[in-house]
Design a protein that fits this description.
Thiol Ester Dehydrase, Chain A, 7 strands, five-stranded antiparallel sheet, alpha+beta, about 25% helix
Length: about 140
């Protein structure tokens, strides 16, 4: 599977008053990492691939995280993201946030590739992930 790694500096806005990352901020970092993964795999920015594939996005339907090491204001961390499973219209992503090479937080997401619902123009509906997207993410 395709892997994307990106550096992130922990900023003061990510932290609680003690300077420790406030846990919901990890989910924002992981969301941005999902976008970075797709942008790199597809070779285009998110706005462009949304138009190119004529879909609405990939909303989250499940998420969780495991916390092992505290990260703090000023830490430089790496986030490695990969799609671990692809199904017809849904997929799983794993994020591994490391500090100095040590796993600090592991995040897990399940997302669904969605388009407009033809029966309800204001609604969304799961649609198949395009074959070339699958190929770019799996290398198959």
């Amino acid at each position: 599977m395709f892997v994307n790694t990106r550096p992130v500096r922990i900023e003061w806005a990510d932290c609680d008053p003690a300077g420790i990352v406030f846990y919901p901020r990890y989910f924002q970092m992981f969301d941005s990492s999902t976008t970075a993964l797709f942008e790199r795999a597809l070779g285009m920015k998110k706005l462009k691939f949304l138009k190119h594939y004529d879909f609405v996005g990939y909303p989250m339907v499940d998420t969780r995280a495991k916390f092992a090491v505290t990260t703090r204001f000023g830490d430089d961390v790496m986030i490695e993201s990969t799609v671990t499973e692809l199904r017809r219209s849904s997929f799983d992503i794993q994020h591994r946030l490391t500090l100095d090479g040590v796993l600090a937080v592991e995040g897990f997401e399940t997302r669904v590739w969605v388009g407009r619902d033809p029966a309800n123009p204001e609604g969304i509906k799961a649609v198949p992930i395009p074959a070339d997207v699958v190929t770019k993410l799996t290398g198959k």
